Amino acid sequence: MKKKFIRVMFFGALALATGASFVGCKDYDDDIDAVNARVDGLEKSLSELQKEVGGCVKSVVYNPITGVLTVTGGNNESFTLPMPKDVPEYTLDVKTEGNVVTITLMQDGKAVGKVGTITLPKVETPDIPESFDPSKLTVKDGYIYYDGTKTEAALPAASACSCSIMAITNESGDIIGYTISAPDKTTGEMTSATFSIIDALPLKGLVFRPECYVSGIPATNVYSIDYNRWVLADSKAEVSETGEVYKEDDSEKYEGSEILPQVWAYYHMNPSSVSMDQIETLAFTSDDKVNYTRASVIVPTADKAKSLVAEVDGQRLLKVAMTLDRDKMPEKQLIPVFALQAQAKVSEEKTIVTSGYATVHKSELTDFVLKTTKVKTPAEGETPAVYEDVVLYGQDITRAGAKNDNAGKAAEAITELADYTVNYKATFDLTNVIKVYYKEGSEEVLLTEEKLNDFGLKVVYEASNYLGGKANEDKTPQNTFINTTEAAKGIVDPEFEGKESDNTIGRKPLIRVSLINTANNEVLTVGWVKTEIERGDVKPIEITAFDKGTYYYGCEDFTGKLDYLDMNKVYDQVKMSKEEFHKAYTYDKSASMDKDVCTGVVEETTTAPVTATNLFEWTVTPAEAKTIIDDDKKANEMKAIVVYKSNDGTRADVVITMTAKIAVASGTIKNDCKRESYWFENYTYVKADVSQPKADAVKYADFKINLFNMFKDNKVVVSDVDVKNFTSFKDPAIKFIFSEKNADKTVKIGKVIYTFQVVGGTKLQACTDYDAEKGTGTFSDVATIDGNGVLTYAETGIAKALLNKSAYNEDPFTAKVEIVASAEDCPTTLLPLTGNTFDVKFLRPINIVALSNATLQDAKENAKIDLNKMFKLTDWRGKDFLAKDPNYYSYYGVTVDNVVVDADQITTNMDGGEAKPVDPELLSISYIKSTDITKSLGTITYNNNKQAVSKEFKLFIPVTVKYTFGEQSTVVELTITPTHP
């Protein structure tokens, strides 16, 4: 038997899907190999199994000894799935109270893990009553989900890498479904499938599934189809070069045709596992809702014998056959409504379930047309693999949308290019690419397979004979070259005299496609598909790859040439002379240089005398080579592919591959090029600070550091570069950037968290309002690096806060800097380096240093103490502030107004225990700022308003010092000694 294999013209190769299996924990593969789990030659995976049987089945049986899972579908068909032996089995216990559902995972009668809850929406009659539906359960990442919502119930961690089987039970302990989990063999990811047991739960509700809406009311369509049939123009016509001719029936006795399809009403069932065996009777109730006038009531009836439970768009629905008198349907002023009543059996009792009301809608269908799926000719900038449905040849309209003068004539297909090409050793199933469209009003609608059957229509295929042939040959009936019996099934099966033959290659058989009314075999519309048989997609001839050497990554393009010596090897491998090869083959540029595997551009050499030596030139830019370097899977290897195609389609493609390795230079920044005295802790960081105090005040803009100064002779030396091969990096250009690793950290000051980002390598920024979910925040500059290597600290609020977070000798704010080396002639081509990162620690210019033993005795009138008894100021070197030679206060911008005491926030421990705010009725404390900052930091005045003090206690005084580079705050202590020493 031939395998089904097709190459659609202009499609390129189609991907073939293969069955999947599973892999779990230890010995899992061995277990699977030991089980014969093949059904009709296909090994079923979990996802394939559910696709095959759907979500509702009759039984699920697992044999722990053999490791075989057997699932019996609704049609009594059984499927088996290989599973590991002794898979852990669980029970999912489901209980409901009101609209709250509790799910508990049980194993051996005991609860496992957390209990999950589901709150179902409360709905009003006549909508479907909400209740637990096992088909909505899934397992993902080890957790149990209901209707897409994650619950707290989870499989034990030990089951995360293995399969599991979970029975779902209701409040009565009845098994109502199963959830099976297993890892996918290809991806290793856990997959799950839930099967609801048919008939396990009674029918609880019905909800109408509308096809459309009438005045806002859900409705089902009452279709009618009027058409003029097509007939063969001359049933006795001989086979000709122009082929068959059909025409619309224009005889006097023929007055047109009509189809009145069965009316169907669709209903969602709760639960979806209900079968027709549980429904004893079906009936419609109906009424007319009057808008302006009164009319008779329409009375539809339900035909239970025709009704069924069907899978529609992946959902299990009740499909009810409706009978009504179309002629008595009310006019536009009246809206007929109906509701379905189903008598269902619950245990030994019978109950009536009623749906909500719906209405009917008259719909006339016209303009049926046959189309086939093709690759659309791409517009400029459009992806080539765009598919479109185009009308078949010989239809009422052309593919351009105009009226077709060749309607009903096979001649149009005969003269046009083939729609599809078929390998002479394979077959092509047309039924996969033929579609039917119709018009409902002005809208064109695709006719689904289900509607096709509902309308009483079918698509019929037949070989359409005509005389054709190769050039300089006698014309031959083209049906001679295909199996006409298979053609009647929609399958193009090339053969000559009943067997596979080279003689079929190049033939162009037609298949007539007709849309037929099954009631009377009349043709609603007819068209033709043209195919071409070719040797085509046989296995290409892969020429041994030509190694084009090594590309030393740098500024220059890589070039590789496919020369006449290489082509001589090609001729030898295909067993042809040069003349024979180029007569039989032509270079196919469109098929060459597959972008998924190739890099660069290949150009054919067409000018003499170069063509005598080099036939193709392969060029790769540094940027293109960089994509290969960055892709770990490519292993630094580039490829170029040149494809030659057969001129007559009778030979396999010849595929010529060129390869080249990419060598990447590297360099090292060694410590011996660094100024030893500027580096700390084994050359891992440098310090950034302001100048030591002098007469002129420091400016904020002076907080900068030239990073080149950290290196001997102000030059960064890159060592260990192979400049012989990598000439682009003989004298690399050097620059400094902020490392992206800065964005990996956060800094916390008090309750505030600072998040960082690096912009273009030249800006380090931070924000305090970062939204991790959105990835956004209001960022401000912290520091910048210019092209000359000068790092400048930014004058922003966030930068100041980070700078003042701690003293120079504690945990100063730190940024990571990276040295980047690039080719001097092409700055975007970078040289990989080691030893090229280091830290810059920004030293806070001044510090508040708390002093101990500051005291005042209680009950002295207006007892005073200077703040300089409680703290002192030092600079980034640890030096105490001086008043002159130079004046540290004026240098750093500390003035009498910049020392602030928040008297309202002073606390005390005079009651013992934790500090509390000062009670102003008991104590009076005030602050008077200094008049000369060089002599005083300000004065605290203390008064006791009440009782004598027997024990010493402390005052905790918040102090803030502002200066050029921000501000610092601390709390200093003042001890109050007893009234009577």
Protein architecture, described:
This protein is mainly β and 981 residues long. Strands 3, 4, 5, 6, 7, 8, 9, 13, 14 and 15 form a ten-stranded mixed beta sheet that branches. Strands 17, 18, 21, 23, 26, 27, 28, 29, 32 and 33 form a ten-stranded mixed beta sheet that branches. A six-stranded antiparallel beta sheet has the order 50-56-55-54-53-52. It folds into six domains: 28-197, no CATH class; 205-236 and 256-364, Sandwich (Immunoglobulin-like); 365-534, Coagulation Factor XIII, Chain A, domain 1 (Distorted Sandwich); 541-663, Immunoglobulin-like (Sandwich); 667-843, no CATH class; 847-977, Immunoglobulin-like (Sandwich), CATH 2.60.40. Strand 11 and strand 12 (149-154) form a beta hairpin. It starts with 27 loop residues before the first helix and ends with a strand. Residues 1-44, 123-129 and 290-296 have low confidence and may be disordered.
Supply the key terms.
single chain; 981 residues; mainly beta; Immunoglobulin-like; Coagulation Factor XIII, Chain A, domain 1; 6 domains; 10-stranded mixed sheet; 7% helix; 43% strand; extended; disordered N terminus
